[in-house]
């Protein structure tokens, strides 16, 4: 089973950008669905972006469409979440998750491998 570690979180002003990374060990992310989730205090975990590493197909939540971009590196070892135009409602712990397959999904229950998360704070 693949192990995932997120990095790249931090403090950014509204309108700013951050790039999160999700690095895999134990196996590559080849032929996986990889999704970025976020969880704010007191709220349910929310899927924001998914990519199929085999097809390149992507799926975004309406709340981030046009602002966030998910991608993977050529070696299929790292997945990225480029977050632009960050808003006050975006702060959360951002987690990546993966599952073998060629589909895309934003549902928590579809993923078995999870990272520990990285904190994103948006504040002026």
Structural account:
The strands form two sheets. Strands 2, 4, 5, 6, 9, 10 and 11 form a seven-stranded mixed beta sheet that branches. The protein has a four-stranded antiparallel beta sheet with strand order 1-3-8-7, with no helix packed on it. The N and C termini lie far apart (40 Å). By secondary structure, it is mainly β. The model has no long low-confidence stretch (mean pLDDT 96). The chain contains no helices and eleven strands. The protein has strands at residues 3-7, 10-12, 18-25, 32-39, 46-52, 58-60, 68-72, 78-83, 92-100, 113-114, 118-122.
Number of strands: 11
What's the order of the H and E elements? EEEEEEEEEEE
Low-confidence stretches at least 5 residues in length (pLDDT < 50)? none
Q: Helical segment tally?
A: 0
Mean pLDDT: 96
Beta content: over 45%
Helix content: under 10%
Q: Quick one: overall form?
A: globular
Q: What does the main sheet amount to?
A: 7 strands, mixed
Give the N-to-C terminal Cα separation.
40 Å
């Amino acid at each position: 089973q693949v192990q995932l570690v997120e990095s790249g979180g931090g403090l950014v002003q509204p309108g700013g950008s951050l790039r999160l990374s999700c690095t895999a060990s134990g196996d590559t992310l080849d032929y996986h669905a990889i999704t970025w989730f976020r969880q704010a205090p007191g709220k349910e975990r929310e899927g924001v972006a998914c990519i199929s590493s085999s097809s390149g197909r992507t799926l975004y939540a309406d709340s981030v469409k046009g602002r966030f971009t998910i991608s993977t590196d050529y070696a299929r070892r790292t997945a990225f979440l480029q977050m632009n135009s960050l808003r006050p409602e975006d702060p959360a712990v951002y987690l990546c998750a993966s599952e073998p397959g060629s589909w895309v999904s934003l549902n928590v229950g579809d993923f078995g491998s999870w990272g520990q998360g990285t904190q994103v704070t948006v504040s002026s």
